[in-house]
Design goal:
Blueprint (H helix, E strand, L loop, with lengths): L2 E6 L2 H19 L3 E5 L11 H9 L4 E3 L10 H7 L19 E4 L5 E4 L2
Parallel strand pairs: 1-2, 2-3
Antiparallel strand pairs: 4-5
Length: 115
């Protein structure tokens, strides 16, 4: 399986680069699965449902997060229903939302991300 991992997408500049370069990377490397860290995609602190939807629409299969994911409180209900945005792995079991997330990538890859 070929995996493309995009590090921290920070604010609008990071999203702009993803919009401009992701398709070229897909055409060049033909990844089965695309994973990106999105916890700072909203102005450098947190992520909103609108931004997560945009990144997923662009072709990212799974968005990872960390402690900053909670900077935008409105993300909690979104995470409860969107299994492609996964919670930080270092959160104690049972905290917040998300357990095991299954994903079918657009290009045929499948994954199970268990925080």
């Amino acid at each position: 399986m070929e995996i493309l991992f995009i590090g921290d997408i920070i604010g609008e500049p990071g999203r702009k680069i993803v919009r401009a370069q992701l398709q070229r990377l897909v055409e060049t490397y033909h990844p089965d699965l695309i994973i990106a860290n999105g916890e700072n995609a909203a102005g450098g602190f947190g992520i909103t449902s609108e931004i997560a939807d945009e990144l997923l629409f662009l072709g990212i299969d799974v968005l990872t997060s960390g402690n900053h994911v909670w900077d935008k409180k409105e993300i909690e209900p979104y995470m409860a229903k969107q299994n492609r945005l996964i919670r930080p792995a270092n959160y104690p079991e049972g905290n917040r939302v998300g357990e095991c997330n299954h994903c079918n990538a657009k290009r045929g890859g499948r994954c199970c991300a268990k925080p």
